[in-house]
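Hi F.,

I've been meaning to write this up properly since the lab meeting, where we talked about keeping a consistent format for the predictions we share between groups. The idea is simple: the sequence comes first, exactly as it goes in, then the structure tokens exactly as they come out, then a line or two of notes. No screenshots and no reformatting. I'm using this chain as the first example so we have something concrete to point to.
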Amino acid sequence: MPRPRNAIARDTVAEAAAPVMAADRVYDAIYAAVIDHRLPPGTRLREEELAETFAVSRTLVRQALHKLAQDNVIVLRPNRGAQVPEPTRRDGEHVFDARRVVECEVARRLVGKLTAGQLAELKQIVEAEARATRSQDKQEAIRLSGEFHLKLAQMSGNPIFVRLLEELLPTTSLLMALYKAPGEPMCVAHSHRTLLQVIGKGDSATAAATEMKRHLNEIERSLSQPMPRAAVPLLDVFKGYREA
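Output, unedited:
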């Protein structure tokens, strides 16, 4: 008995969607590992090793790597393959210039516009970041710091701001891994508290933009000399992913 046409169509869609979802999972895992410093700058991303780690084909790994390269999360070098970038201090100047343009405008637009629910959500992120910092959970503190900035952009309602920040955050994180002294958090939770208070008051858009600029300047000034770093096997980096 022939199968219903709609059942065949559903199977076709599912088969086509599965590889896309697998490639997206690889993309998300590598993006997150760059953001929270589990993948140090300069790390080689070998297709065969990643395919084994994620239990997917090298074709799907290649798709994820190409998308990561398009989003400036990694670089693809001829005859050398994929690699986590090693941004220079000059790159850092460009990144923070762009972040000041985007995020100061985000802060300006959010003044007096956040709902009680949005303020509560942002406060939860800041408090979670402070707890992670106190417990010396560096990776979680870094992740929450990035989440705070990205959440502000999302709440501004401008998807272009969100996309730009998503492209700038990985390079910011790599700059921290390269040039920030060990033991210092990516952002300071009390600075996020101050920023949130200024935005939440709704008194002055200029004051909110000024506080955001001060905060980003503080992060940029914390970058110093290149920090030593050790290579990390990819199987160890994504151990949690495999166990999950």
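Notes:
The chain has eleven helices and three strands.
The longest strand covers residues 75-77.

If this format works for you, I'll send the rest the same way.

G.
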